Amino acid sequence: MKETVYEWKFCDNEIIRESFSYRGSKALYEFLTELEYAGEEIEFDPVAFRCDFTEYKDFDEIKGVYPDLVDMDDLNDRTIVLTFDDGIIIQNF
């Protein structure tokens, strides 16, 4: 059974709201819908999104969690990075 999840429903989900800022949730939604447009079927699983992705304020905050990172290029080489006005979301690695 499939369900179409529009941006407002994605961003308004309780787990998404607790895990990501509004702008972060919009960036994650856009990323996931781009994957679907490319042919990858995505299941709407807010718990999995919360476990797989983390939002940070800036690179310094990420470096606090992953101290071996050199710079943003190094981060981009290791994982998925979504940047938006107020922060950065990465796929945890």
Describe the protein in words.
The protein is α+β, with helices and mostly antiparallel strands. It has one domain (7-91). 53% of the residues lie in helices and 14% in strands. A three-stranded antiparallel sheet has the order 1-3-2, sandwiched between helices. The N and C termini lie far apart (31 Å).
Topology (SSEs and partners):
Blueprint: H1 7-12, H2 14-19, H3 22-37, H4 46-52, E1 53-56, H5 59-65, H6 72-78, E2 81-84, E3 87-91
TL;DR?
This protein has helices at residues 7-12, 14-19, 22-37, 46-52, 59-65, 72-78, and strands spanning 53-56, 81-84, 87-91. By secondary structure, the chain is of the alpha+beta class. A 3-stranded antiparallel β-sheet has the order 1-3-2, with helices on both faces.
Which shape, going by the Cα principal axes? globular
Pattern of helices and strands: HHHHEHHEE
> How many structural units, i.e. domains?
1
Distance between the termini: 31 Å
Q: Find the count of extended strands (DSSP E, 2+ residues).
A: 3
What class do helices, strands and sheet pairing give?
A: alpha+beta
Helix-residue proportion: 40-55%
- So how many helices? 6
Mean pLDDT across all residues, rounded?
A: 96
Question: Radius of gyration, rounded?
Answer: 14 Å
In order across it, which strands form the biggest sheet?
A: 1-3-2
Q: Which regions have little confidence, pLDDT < 50, spanning 5+ residues?
A: none
Question: What percentage of the residues does DSSP assign to strands (E)?
Answer: 5-15%
Largest sheet descriptor: 3 strands, antiparallel
State the oligomer: single chain
